[in-house]
Amino acid sequence: MIIVTSLHVNEVLDRLKIKNPTSVARHERATRALAMEIVGTVDISCPVYIASVDGACVTDIDGNEYVDLTMGFGPHVLGHRPPAVETALTEQLGKGWHWGVHNDIQIELAELVQEMSPCAEKVVFCNSGTEATMLAIRAARAFSGRSKVAVFDGSYHGVHDYALMVADNTSARSEPTPRRRGAGIPDQVLETVMMLPYNDDSAFDVIRRNADDLALVLVEPVQSSNPREDIGPWLRSLSRACREAGVLFMLDEVITGFRLAPGGGQEYFDVVADLATFGKALGGGLPIGAVAGRADVMSVFGRGTERARPIFSGGTFSGNPLSMIAGVAALTYMKENLEFFDELNERGRKLSRLVNEHAVATNAPVVMMGAGSMFHLRFTDAPIVSFRDVTIDFQETERLFYQLLQERGVLVPGIHLAFISLAHSDADVLFVARAINESIDDLRKAGYFEGMPA
Question: Whole-prediction pTM value?
Answer without folding.
Answer: 0.92
